[in-house]
Structures are given as structure tokens and as C-alpha cells.
Amino acid sequence: KENGVLESPTGTGKTLCLLCATLAWREHFRDSISASKIADKLKGQEMFPNTPLASWGTAATDGDKPAYYTDIPKIIYASRTHSQLAQVINELKNTSYRPKVCVLGSREQLCINQEVMRQESNHIKVHMCRQKVSTRSCLYYNNVEEKSTDRDLVNSIVDVEDLVKFGNRQKACPYYLSRSLKQQADVIFMPYNYLLDPKSRRAHNIELNGAVVIFDEAHNVEKTCEESTSFDLTPYDVASAITAVDRLLVEQAKEVSQGDSLTEDLNVESLGSGSKIDINTIAKIKQILLDLEAAIDSYEVPSDKGITKPGIFIYELLERAHLTYNTKADIHDALEQIIGCLTGLPGIFLSTAGLQKLVDIIQ
């Protein structure tokens, strides 16, 4: 329940010290719970009469004895990149500790469904994966439940690469395997933007309450925080979003004119909510985008030095496109639905990056 900042030159074994110290502390914590459970059972009798109880484990935990094994904190070990994490996991393999571990990664690193991996941008992969998962049409995802209890997997220390190899061998999705391993893991490894960026933290369902958090290579933390709370939105993004919405309107109009013969193809069940997207909603979103474009265009920006405004300015700008605190949830959901529909349209190459940027900004 304290914060510490530790510095040491490169090559002095920081990682090994952090791992061993943390895991030793955790084992001691667990032993002391066992000791107090045994002491309770013995009701004052001496188990080892010549050895004082204290010497076989009373953990220093703020004076009150930990009572349950569920009180043992999870250890979240965060480093800047996955390649740094791979080195940390290698170090762990060289120690005598064998905790249950799990490493979190994105679909980018962990997805093995070829159809999803062929998609050019990350957010389309996400949408496509979600669609396949919700309709149970991804063979790898369907095997996760059965393989997630596999003894080789649960009891060995695996990094991203090992997880992908295991997934390919067992035809099970490494991404969802890592999420199910997380439930049982003693140590969870992740890049630290997963922790620092509230969006990622929600997406990966990371519970920080009562956990021990270690930032390795922490000198980059500040920069990561800045990045996760910053965004850029260019006129090109807005224009490409308008093009994408236009395309969907055209498709919907076609569908209406041809009667309902096409409905099945076009109305991709929107993600998770299972509702069809309404043409008025699409039209409203288009209007918001046009207003946003007009609002951005209305500022004269001198090309040589640009303009700087106070932070509150962004809210005023978005408000001109009717994007306010009260409307944001509806607009966000509608944009997600539109991206979902566009991802599902057969044979259309269309950039939804602008729409996705807006979704991220609203979040």
C-alpha cells in the first residue's frame, strides 16, 4: 500500500529483482494465510512445540491477519512494449518461481483467424472479430472454453509468441485464451498503455483494486499518459467519415427501392445490440458530420504558426455540431452501428478510419 520509485543502471538486473521480490512477498503472504488457518484449526495446541509460530509465517499486512486466499493480490507487471515484456517473461522462466501468468495483447498480435487478419485496419479487425464471436462463426473462438483449462497452457509460463503457437496447434483463439487465463493468473503482464488509457482498461476489464502494479521502464509513462489523452482530427478524417456515411445511405436507398430482397445481406445485425440501423439515424449522423466540417472550416488558421486555444475550446467546437455531454452516448452508439454495417457490406472497400477516430474522440 505504498508507492516506490526505484532506479538502477542498465544491466544491473532490475527486472529479476522486481520479479523475485514481488513473487517472494506474494508466497510469504500466502503462507501466512495458511499458517493462520492451521493455527485456527489447532485451537492453541502447538503443532511444532519447539518452533515459535511467528517463524513460520505471519505476514506483515498492516497488523490484521489476512484471512482468505482471495485476499492475495494479483501482480500487474507493465512495460512499454510487447518485446520488452517478452524479455521479462524470459527472465521469469529462469527463476525458481512458477506462478500462473498471463500476457495481454491486442487482436493485432493474437488473432489467428485469416479472414480477420486480412483486413487492413485495426478497428475493422475488431468489428469483424466481434461479429464472428457474437454469431459463433469463428472456429478458433468456439474452441476457447475447452482449451482454456489445458494443463500445458495453465501451468507453463507463456509469452505472446508461445500463446499464438499454442493457439495454432490447438485451433483455439489466443486473444480470448489470454482473457480467460487472466481470471486465474497470479501475475498479469501487459503494455502500460493498457493500464493508463481508460478505454483500454475498460476493454480488457482490468481490475486495479488491491493489485500490486509495477511499471518497468517507467520513464516513458508520462509520454504515454499524454498520448492517451490527446487526439488529432483532420479535415480529411471528417471528409472520409462523410463519404462512408453517404455510401451507407446509398446502400439503404437501393435496398428500399428493391423491396426487401436484399435485407438479409445489408442489415448486418449491429454489434451486440441486435437492432437494425434506421435510415433517419444515418441521416442525423451525416448532418452532425457536415456541421463539424463547417465548424472546423470556419477557423482561419495562419499557415505559418497555427493557432492555440485553451482546452475548453474543443467542447465549444464539438457543440457546434450538436455533440454535447447529453448526446454523446447516442451518437457514439450510432457511429459504432454504422461502422459495423459498413464492415459487414460485401465487396466494398471503404475507409471507416475517420468514423473510428470520431468514436475514439467521443469515448
Q: What is this structure, in a nutshell?
A:
It comes from Characodon lateralis. With 363 residues, the protein is mainly α. It has helices at 14-42, 82-93, 107-110, 114-117, 122-134, 139-142, 144-147, 151-154, 160-170, 174-184, 193-196, 198-203, 221-228, 235-257, 263-266, 279-297, 313-319, 328-344, 353-362; strands spanning 75-79, 101-103, 187-191, 212-215.
Describe the protein:
There is one protein chain. By secondary structure, the protein is mainly alpha-helical. It is built from 19 helices and four strands. The longest helix has 29 residues. The relative contact order is 0.11. It comes from Characodon lateralis. Pfam families: ARCH_RTEL1, DEAD_2. This is Regulator of telomere elongation helicase 1. One of its GO terms (molecular function) is helicase activity.
**Span between termini:** 31 Å
User: Outline, from the CA principal axes?
Assistant: elongated
Mean of residue pLDDT values = 82
Q: Looking across the biggest beta sheet, what order are the strands in?
A: 2-3-1-4
| Radius of gyration, taken over Cα atoms and rounded to an integer in Å | 26 Å
Number of helices: 19
Report the strand count. Answer: 4
Percent of sequence in beta strands:
under 5%
Poorly predicted spans: 56-62, 262-275
Q: What string gives the helices and strands in order? A: HEHEHHHHHHHHEHHEHHHHHHH
**Main sheet record:** 4 strands, parallel
Structural class: mainly alpha
Q: What percentage of residues falls in helices of 4 or more residues?
A: 40-55%
Keywords: ATP-binding, Helicase, Hydrolase, Nucleotide-binding
Organism: Characodon lateralis
Pfam family, one: DEAD_2
InterPro entries: DinG/Rad3-like, Helic_SF1/SF2_ATP-bd_DinG/Rad3, Helicase-like_DEXD_c2, P-loop_NTPase, RAD3-like_helicase_DEAD, Rtel1_ARCH
